[in-house]
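== Item description ==
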Amino acid sequence: MRDLLEHRRLVITITLLYLSQGIPIGIAMDAMPTLLRHDGAPLHALAFLPLVGLPWVVKFLWAPVVDNRWSPRIGRRRSWMLPMQTLVVLCLGSLAQIGMTVATAGWAVGLLAVASLASATQDIANDGMAAEHFGGDTLAKINAIQIAGVMIGFFGGGAGTLTLIGLFGQRAAFLALAAVPLASLVCVLWVLPRDADRARAKAEHDASLVRFAKRPRSWSLLSLALLSAMTAVSGFGLSKLFLNDAGWTLDAIGKLGMAGGIVTVVLGCGGGAWLVRRLGLWRAFTAGVSCAGAAALLWFAQAGGWLPVSPSWAWLCTVLGSLATGITSVSIMTAGMRFAGGSDQAGTDVTAVQSTRDLGELIASSTILSLTAKVGYTGGFLTGAALAVLAALIAMRLKRRESAYAVKGDDVLAS
């Protein structure tokens, strides 16, 4: 803890940046489907909403540009943080003015797409700054802050939005959310130390995706990133639509989601870090996807009528799903940060892992929503359970492969 206090100005800035990054995507992928469904939108019309997260999937395409291009006068990372955070504040402020209904859905999606693009680009700079400035045990703590911060932002933009709207209305809710990126913008301008944004000596080669792809075990890491995201959405987002159609109020759904967010951050992330340390990376990941599979099966039983749609079962499913999200996220990002720490293009390397993870989340979200529109909630939840089983099987296979590499002494991921 002392090491974080010694760099408290940098840590505060990084924390607020990670927190603000999760808000736009949380609104788009978690709150918006429920709000539009509540306003009468059909299920099939909601399947395209996860596409708002597309910039997070393809940001690897411009990650080398963020690493290589910047203004010496402004600073290597500030050159990207300042304009991107300004865009996020403007988009959320505009969303507060127009509201989010079926009639304004087109404008709302456009604003959130721009905010998502800005947040994804800023994330590259933030990850790069963290990897450049911290190392050793401190980097692991910063990685925990990253996961918790983005998740809190996501749950705040999702379940938090639903709760605030239920209490104060849409305008007040979106203005309150806009205050977070505004605070991070202030920190980047006046709190972030100048030496924290220093540039390293010019590397022998520019950052590039080709250099990442040529590193040993990079493709195994990407496979795990894809699977970790697919398990995280197995039943989590779909459950809110299921509860809405079962007659739950937006306020009740929002409170359940907020409670799940707390479990994710406190028990999922904290427990995930402990499991990685005690069991190793792959076993911890398997424990996480097992929780996801159990939650999906319980939702399946409720949708099929074998269990009652009661608060007790909903809470149990939410706790299991939240634990799964935290544990799998900690596992994959621990692997990603460890991998990137051995290179001189940390922003690009971490972004490649994150983009692959976001691709898995996007594919799973859209596929399950489309499938549910055709075969019902039982089919959607059962698919989520099957994805969790597949992820666990492949993770165990990857563990055996990485253990074999570790015997040779040339693997940085095996544990």
User: Anything to note?
Assistant: The chain has one domain: 2-195+208-408. Residues 2-195+208-408 form a domain with the Growth Hormone; Chain: A; fold (CATH 1.20.1250.20). The mean pLDDT is 84.
